[in-house]
Amino acid sequence: MAHESFEDKEIAEYLNENFVAIKVDREERPDIDNVYMTACISLTGEGGWPLSIFMAPDQKPFYAGTYFPKHSRYNMPGFTDLLRAVKKAWDNSKEELLKSGDEIMEAMQQKEQIKSEVDLRELTDSGAAAFRKYFDKTNGGFGRAPKFPTPHNLMFLLKYYHYYKEKEVLTIVEKTLDAMYRGGIFDHIGYGFSRYSTDSVFLVPHFEKMLYDNALLTLSYLECLQLTGKRHYGDIAERILLYVERELRSSQGGFFCAQDADSEGEEGKYYTFLPEEAVKLLGKDNGKYFNEHFDITEKGNFEGKNIPNRIPALELGNIETILEERIDALTPQIYKYRLGRTELHKDDKILTSWNGLMITACAKAYRVLKEKKYLSMAEKGVAFIEEHLSQKGRLKVRYRDGSSKGEGHLEDYAFYCLALLTLYEASFDIQYLKLAVSYAKTMLAFFFDEKEGGFYLSAKDSESLIYRPKAVDDNAIPSGNSAAAFALKKLGDLTGDTEFINSAELQIKYLSGVIDHPLSHSFTLSAMLDFIQPGKELVCVTKDGDTSALEELLNRHYLPGLSVVVKSTENDEQLGELIPFTKDYPVEDRTAYYLCQNRSCQRPVYDISALKELMEL
To answer: Rounded CA gap, 278 and 284, in Å?
Structure first.
């Protein structure tokens, strides 16, 4: 639509003469995007991008749609004809359009009203049942093509399995993670995942790579590693992070948004191969082996060329055998060769929200894999946000070309709080817990509805729109509301602060009352599991700050309901100010572990094996 209409001189002249044309970046203004996407769905029954909205000067929409070709075709109105029709209606029937706008507004506001509070276990069970129903037993994933990764669906199911031990649920997750890796949606040459698969077998992707997908998928593979102990999930997570480090990480430590699908005007041209390319580069034997390994044939699997994949081979063997030393030695040569092709465009915006997700993934990777470079990536990501995207305790939306813009929205605060909390529990550096507490209090002060619960997308002192939405759907990325529920619950468990505890309970009560379709709320359902199940708090008191034995225990086990605080001689005073109850735990000459539940702690144990016994690991 950008090429057909917005760059067309005839349309530009008509638009400029008769309308005020506003183009919005939905990544920078998710509040505007949410308001008018809701309007589009209210008007047409469906949404999507590009989103086209016609509104009165008071911001109230009266007509909406998604894609319009320049000229009418196939019963689809053309943008040229639509503009003239809207102009005519505005000139001749303005009052009817304004009335329509008022009716749309009323429908939009009713959508977010609490319907009734629902039992949390009932909601999570219905969510698991829905995923079982829509699971593609043959190919993995859910439903039909196109198939999106939506990793938070899998993260919910992993946690559901952890608590209820339903084997079928774990099978769904493993089959989907394995299917995505073996398909062309994963870049077997340069690593990282594409945005979605256009088919049902994950072979042909839309080749664009998004930061948020790769962050959330990293978390999914790491958590599956912890639950199953299957090493190949960790290997896949490391390959995703290698892609991010090479292609999406700025020299200053922040993370870029995305890498385009097109080069030289063709989608996928950068990623596809002919058999003779590998033979010429690697020699006859190695080239033949490489082609067979990645299903690269004369016939091709994509427009006469080949998307490297492992689908046929894995029908003959177990996925755990796919990570082979010989291929790992050959692939870097192909990767270097591919770098010589026309460079893909990179969306080099650095968004606070998406960086929060990637920092979370890096911190989790350090905790699970104990590779220090992942801790460094996470810490430098936080340092970047603190230097470039934080001003006087308030977050900005994005950084690009040396400048930061936009006042932070809910997802900026919620995702960044999760990142800081994950980094604290990976490093036990109290500065990250202090930052998380500070930003969470700001989030509550500027975004939270203290009466009904729920967080508004925009701050109370931000630009006024026609209404303040509380977006709750977990779409391509989790909603800020579900992420906020996680953050508040974790902060309440860690600190014992009643403001966090009470706000978390009100937040989950609100969310339980607005869910329509559990499939669209998987991250919220995952948060609900933490409220259903009794969590545990672990206080480790160590004189010299040595937590190596504890870290070994934590990285080997999937423990979503556990919160960990480490007290040492060095952080004693700061921790006491931040978490007053830790003053009651004396620093001794030996490391002590206090395991607590419902604010009641057992006698300390002084050996990691005794702690494992207490935790029933």
So the answer is: 8
CATH of domain 2-111: 3.40.30.10
- What does the pLDDT read at residue 314? 61
What integer is the mean pLDDT of 575-591?
91
CB distance 42 to 107 below 8 Å = yes
Does 105 score more than 80 pLDDT? no
- Cα–Cα distance between 417 and 517 in angstroms, integer? 27
CA distances from 99 to 61, 62, 512, 593 (A): 10, 8, 33, 65
Tell how strand 536-542 and strand 562-568 pair up. Answer: parallel
Given a cut of 70, whether residue 111 has pLDDT beyond it is no
| Torsion of Cα atoms, 133 then 137 then 139 then 142, to 10° | 10
Q: What is the pLDDT of residue 321?
A: 56
pLDDT of residue 326: 85
Q: Compute the C-alpha angle 379/380/381, nearest 5°.
A: 90
Say which CATH topology domain 536-614 has: Glutaredoxin (3.40.30)
Domain range list for the chain = 2-111, 145-348, 536-614
Determine contact, residues 407/459, Cβ cutoff 8 Å.
yes
**Per-residue confidence band for 120, with pLDDT thresholds at 50, 70 and 90:** very high
Long-range contacts of 142-148 (CB under 8 A, 24+ apart): 142/176, 144/200, 145/197, 145/198, 145/199, 145/200, 146/196, 146/197, 146/198, 146/199, 146/206, 147/196, 147/197, 147/199, 147/200, 147/202, 148/195, 148/196, 148/197, 148/476
Cα 279 to chain center, whole Å? Answer: 39
Strand partners, 537: 563, 596
Question: Which among 239, 489, 218, 259 is positioned nearest to 357, based on CA atoms?
Answer: 218
Beta strands in 12-73 (DSSP E): 52-55, 61-65
Length of the chain: 617
In eight-state DSSP terms, residue 465 is -
Best CA proximity match to 514, nearest among 458, 469, 477? 469
| 327 burial type by CB count under 10 A (0-12 exposed, 13-18 middle, 19+ buried) | middle
Q: Which two tokens stand for residue 610?
A: 């005794």
DSSP-derived letter for residue 534 is: P
Cα-Cα-Cα-Cα dihedral sign, residues 341, 345, 350, 352: negative
DSSP 394: E
**pLDDT tens column, 396-442:** 999 999 999 999 999 999 999 999 999 999 999 999 999 999 999 99
Return the minimum-mean-pLDDT range out of 87-101, 107-121, 222-236, 281-295. Answer: 107-121
2-111 against 536-614: fold identical: yes
